[in-house]
Amino acid sequence: MPELRRPDGCRLHFETYGDRGAAPIVLLEGMGGDIPGWRRSIPRLSAEFFVVAYDFRGNGMSDAPDEPMTAATFVEDTVDLLDHLDIVPAHIYGQSFGGMVAQELALAHPEVVRTLVLACTHCGGSHAIRRETAEQAEGLHLALYATGFAERHPEHVTEDLEVGSRNPQRPQAGRRQWEAMLGFDSYDRLPGIVAPTLVLHGTDDRLVPVENAFRLAARIPRAELVLLRGAGHLYHSEQPEAADTAVLRFIRRYP
Q1: Angle between helices 171-182 and 97-108 (to 10 degrees)
Q2: DSSP assignment of 102-141, as one string?
Q3: pTM of this structure
Q4: Which of 70, 90, 141, 188 is deepest in the core (most CB within 10 A)?
């Protein structure tokens, strides 16, 4: 089983797909997510690119050290993985919390980023636009989807829940990642991102409002914005074909 052990002893689980000689794209998952969460996108992306997916510390099959973390912790994990696989520079595709790590990676290590895809994410701090928790009263797992999606596609949601339950996030890991997210704020530094950037967001995201996408796109030089109509926070589960098309169309321009 492929893994990388970091200097602090944390073991990171990763998987690779596609032709090793193709341009690499690295998938950075959301808080509490894991590699199977990308299962609807990996086949199409790996048909053209060398796909690398890894579980953040605390997620999936990676270790979950109960110690203070910041976004920089996950950035350094990612840089070490890129060096380990000798795939610098790479296309970096981060969603939600992974999008925050991707922003920090592009700012701290621009030399490792070929292109940047920021999906269903925000800039953190006081400039992030947040939903009121009352809007999530129906349950967090349902709020991950667009309004009415679960009712229209119950079998789809049941499958997502079943797959997600195979590697549940440990409580202490969730707390530590939450602390890292709360300490994240890129707003003032966003104009320093030099990588070609695609901002991707569902218009019915009930966890990270779509207004955050407009804010990111306005602050990052020459960023492109693609909105997935009617998609929620789990846009890549609800509309994988549309999401993959947008990502591929963008990164193909930067071989």
Answers
A1: 50
A2: HHHHHHH-GGGEEEEEEES---BGGGS----GGGGTT-HH
A3: 0.95
A4: 90
